[in-house]
Amino acid sequence: MRRLTFWLILGTAIALIGLWAGCGGGGNSNEILIGEYSAMTGTTATFGQSTHRGLMMAVDECNAAGGVLGKKIRLLTEDTQSKPEEAATAVTKLITRDGVKAVIGEVSSSRSLAAAPICQANGIPMVSNASTNPEVTKKGDYIFRVCYIDPFQGEVMARFAYNTLGIRKAAILKDIKNDYSIGLAQYFEETFVKLGGQVVATQAYSEGDIDFKAQLTALKSAEPEAVIVPGYYTEAALIVKQARELNMTIPFIGGDGWDSAKLVEIGGQAMNNTFFSTAYTADDPDSIVQNFVTKYTSRYNEKPDAFAALGYDAGLILFDAVRRAGSTDGPALRDALKTTRDVRGVTGSITIDADRNARKPIVIIAVVDGKMTYKETIQP
Ligand code: PHE
């Protein structure tokens, strides 16, 4: 009995020391520490929560298959609270306190833009899952992403508006505190005007606003045939709802920032006759997508959204790069990420180009009867 107690105490002590060592700089020798900085709380909390779920699936699958380089992946997550300043603090903590070898995040371009210079200065590779603003990866050669970029997305949105919907006069309502929104508005306009279309009015708001009636009234008087709202889903849904109340029945068009189940939860039937572009749809019949949807749904009891799919894919290309690098050394890992070719993710085949961006197809979703409906896929 005495002996058993002795071994129990010794065992617990060893386990605790192991745990303690694992928490400090660099982790223990049997694991690879990867940092995630994500909006787990705040205005865009579903961005971070879904990303984290998708990423955890990639981590657990990787570890179940034996891990990489004979080690297990351990993910450390820091909350950005949906704020750029907190994103900078979060990656600083992950890198200097925890000693992570690479960082995954963020969804929002404004937050990725705040964190990227810190990763770059420390020589720690960063992979954004969903930041589409082109400036993000221009912060340096350690910065990568698994999603497409906004010049391509803006062009697809403009072509869709002009060719598919036959729109000639468009209005824009953008979030002026959001780098993504400002950029996407500009790229849309460039292509739309080149095609022969006209932007008849532009108005602005800031994330967190709840009343858009003044801007909508101003836009309405310019008599556009469609309104482009390159922002995030919470405001986008409120904007469309209030537009319908003002009897604006015209199409509203958005980008990937609209892609959340919350869009139709908030907007309901008002969202009919709206369209948006995104990276992925759970309705894609492809067997890799459906396999992911089944596993995710049984684990989390909800359908995976684009963040979950992109979070999973960010993990996938990072672990693939560690394997090919044969090391977790910053420069080696960066070089391996640069040569990512045809990694089959949930959001399509991922190849990293010379600017460290992924060339990916775009999916168009239409809201019909209050439901998001897959329309078409556009190749890069
Ligand atoms: N693309 C957006 C950005 O760069 C983030 C986003 C992605 C938001 C997907 C919603 C859905 O800021």
Q: What's the CATH H-level superfamily name of the largest domain?
A: Response regulator
N- to C-terminal distance:
69 Å
Q: Which series of helices and strands comes N to C?
A: HEHEHEHEEHEHEHEHEHEHHHEEEE
CATH topology of the largest domain, by name, is Rossmann fold
| Helix content estimate | 40-55%
Using the 3D structure, state the CATH architecture of the largest domain.
Answer: 3-Layer(aba) Sandwich
CATH class of the largest domain: Alpha Beta
Order of strands across the biggest sheet?
7-6-8-9-10-13-14
- The number of distinct β-strands equals 14
Number of H/I helices: 12
Instruction: Catalogue the ligands.
Output: phenylalanine
Tell me the β content.
15-25%
Summed up, the domain count is 2
Summing up helix and strand content along with how strands pair, one would put the structural category as: alpha/beta
Outline the low-pLDDT stretches.
Answer: 10-24
Mean pLDDT: 93
Rg calculated over all Cα atoms: 22 Å
Q: Largest beta sheet, briefly?
A: 7 strands, mixed
Question: Which labels suit this protein?
Answer:
46% helix, alpha/beta, 14 strands, Rossmann fold, binds phenylalanine, five-stranded parallel β-sheet, 380 residues
Description:
With 380 residues, this protein is α/β, with parallel strands linked by helices. It has two domains: 11-148 and 286-360, 3-Layer(aba) Sandwich (Rossmann fold), CATH 3.40.50.2300; 150-278, Rossmann fold (3-Layer(aba) Sandwich), CATH 3.40.50.2300. 46% of the residues lie in helices and 19% in strands. It has twelve helices and 14 strands. The strands form three sheets. A seven-stranded mixed sheet has the order 7-6-8-9-10-13-14, with helices on both faces. The chain has a five-stranded parallel sheet with strand order 2-1-3-4-5, with helices on both faces. A two-stranded antiparallel ribbon has the order 11-12. Helix 3 packs parallel to helix 4 (109-122) and helix 11 crosses helix 12. Mean pLDDT is 93; it is low at 10-24. The structure holds phenylalanine. Phenylalanine binds at residues 107-109, 130-133, 180, 232, 256-257, 259, 306.
